[in-house]
Design brief:
Length: about 270
């Protein structure tokens, strides 16, 4: 018995070139992972924060010890509020997945401040206006809205595990500061920051949130970057450098050395 080939259409002629398929009709576009969309949509905010004159000075070794203390004092306020918000968010079915003790920074900030400013560091906790606004946002929106919480969590901790690692190295190498004074920048609970960030981005990519919620995260991250940039600008203004840098421009790249003794020079 001879078998009959069953064909459902014309045989494919492998020798002819198939007409190009309209790419957008043939294959549905693969959705951009949320972590990638978030990074792309907030890139400008990151540029503004990371180019702040204060950060440039810190990285190149021209800040004073007082400057560093002022920065860590602002962070002490910010992380106090962020980590308080995390306590509340821990029980949330979605936001809670981001909360982990491995990231907690407040004890490290307190240890660094004790080392750099002495045992009376709590007597000098003045916050600049942007810090006060930042704390208000963390106690308000980030403590009541899971999207705002995730946005603020992402902006600070992924930043600390990225640029923060470079800053910590600069503080140790350029200023000769010991590990005990720079522990804020070292995550003992995260020995492999790259692997941790990959997992974090995978978590962002599996958020069960729709477009409106994703949009809310993007907007809040941009807000967080703005608060961080203003905080740094206001620290610059305290040093008498805000006006001469021209806020909003390519800040800090051509600024002269900061006043005050270098961090490493003061015991
Ligand atoms: C001198 C200052 C800074 C430098 C040199 C710097 C550098 C970097 C670098 C190299 C990355 C990419 C890391 C990677 O792909 O894994 C990064 C990512 C990031 N930075 Fe910064 N940064 C600085 C300041 C800041 C500031 C002030 C913030 C905000 C608080 C911030 C928030 C972030 C965030 C959230 C990411 C993760 C972006 C993502 O991959 O989704 N950075 N930074």
């Amino acid at each position: 018995m001879t078998s009959t080939a069953v064909t459902t259409g014309p045989a494919i002629d492998a020798t002819t070139t198939a007409p190009a398929l309209e790419p957008d009709l043939a294959v549905p576009p693969s959705p951009v992972p949320f972590s990638e969309l978030l990074r792309t949509r907030t890139r400008s905010g990151h540029g503004t924060s990371s180019r702040a004159g204060f950060m440039s000075d810190l990285m190149r070794g021209t800040c004073s010890r007082d400057d560093l203390v002022r920065l860590l004092v602002q962070y002490w306020h910010v992380y106090g509020a962020l980590e308080q918000a995390a306590v509340g968010a821990a029980a949330h079915p979605v936001a809670g997945a981001f909360v982990t003790d491995r990231l907690t920074r407040l004890p490290s900030l307190e240890a660094d401040l004790g080392h750099l400013a002495g045992p009376a560091w709590r007597d000098h906790l003045d916050a600049v206006p942007a810090t006060i606004e930042y704390v208000g946002r963390l106690r308000g929106a980030a403590s009541s809205s899971p999207t705002a919480f995730v946005a603020h969590h992402y902006t600070r901790y992924l930043g600390d595990l990225s640029g923060g690692q470079h800053i910590g190295r600069a503080l140790r190498q350029r200023y000769g500061l010991p590990d005990e004074a720079t522990s804020f920048f070292t995550f003992d609970g995260v020995p492999d920051p790259t692997a941790f960030k990959d997992e974090y981005r995978a978590r962002l990519d599996s958020l069960p949130w729709g477009e409106a919620d994703e949009e809310a995260v993007v907007t809040e991250v941009l807000h967080a970057y703005d608060l961080n940039a203003r905080l740094l600008d206001e620290l610059d203004a305290e040093r008498g450098l805000g006006a001469e840098r021209g806020l909003g421009a390519e800040r800090g790249l051509d600024a002269g050395p900061a006043s005050g003794a270098p961090v490493g020079a003061v015991s």
